[in-house]
Write a structure and sequence with these properties.
Number of helices: 8
Shape: globular
Radius of gyration: 18 Å
Mean pLDDT: 92
CATH superfamily of the largest domain: ATPase, nucleotide binding domain
Distance between the termini: 53 Å
Number of domains: 2
Order of helices and strands: EEEHEHEHEEEHEHHEHH
Structural class: alpha/beta
CATH topology of the largest domain: Nucleotidyltransferase, domain 5
Strand content: 25-35%
Length: about 230
């Protein structure tokens, strides 16, 4: 399967092109901003290096969230446009599960964390074998409250884990393990594994239903709710 995979859920924007289980090309950009034009350049580079055009793909995968509201909107809108123009099927996957995939066959549960701002984190816990199996589902919560749910050895990974490392160690001590720096960034090539599995199960997402999984309400949604209450 020739698969293009896109992730814009954090400050690390990444695009991969895989054929079967082989990663043919992957482009990563770590930036606080992920404008559509920059993402399109990464997509064009990944395809060009593989010598393929969008019309030659068998499908497209995209990270649905949680993560940056703006980043997710840009990534999903871009994938929708490409899929519509080329007539290609699309599937989506959890951004946190993708990050957990950086540690396959881990001996201990893996806890991916994104910094959700407002003193909260997007997080989950997965048992990572060939594919990640959720133990605690994706959610948004304060790190202190979340850590109350953990009592065993756990591997932490992601920008949120680094941001709250002192708190994690204070709560869990030597039961808290941290992934190496090389595994801290989410990678589209790992998302490709999830997307390939979803396609194999027939989990194609209609473009109209392809929307971000924010988990928590956006500022605009909260403002509208507040207006209705008032």
């Amino acid at each position: 399967m020739k698969l293009l995979t896109v992730d814009t859920s954090t400050s690390t924007c990444s695009v991969s092109l895989t054929i079967g289980e082989r990663v043919v090309s992957e482009c990563l950009l770590n930036s606080e901003k992920t404008p559509a034009s920059r993402l399109l350049r990464l997509i064009d580079r990944a395809l060009s290096e593989a010598g393929l055009g969008v019309t030659e793909l068998d499908g497209i995968g995209v990270a649905l969230g949680p993560g940056s509201f703006t980043g997710l909107r840009i990534g999903i809108a871009t994938v929708k446009g490409l899929a519509l123009a080329a007539g290609k099927p699309v599937t989506g996957f959890s951004s946190l599960a993708m990050l957990a995939m950086n540690l396959p066959w881990a001996a201990y549960p893996v806890c991916p964390m994104f910094d959700a701002k407002k003193k909260e984190i997007y997080t989950a816990v997965y048992n990572c074998r060939e594919l990640p199996v959720p133990v605690i589902a994706d959610g948004v919560i304060s790190p202190g409250d979340f850590l109350e749910n953990l009592d065993g050895v756990t591997i932490f990974v992601g920008e949120g884990a680094l941001a709250y490392r002192e708190l994690i160690v204070a709560r869990l001590g030597d039961k808290a393990l941290f992934a190496p720096s090389s595994a801290q960034q989410p990678r589209a090539s790992q998302g490709a594994v999830l997307a390939r599995g979803a396609f194999a199960r027939g989990e194609v997402v209609p473009l109209a239903a392809l929307v971000p999984r924010y988990i928590r309400a956006s500022e605009a949604e909260l403002a509208n709710i507040k207006k209705r209450i008032v």
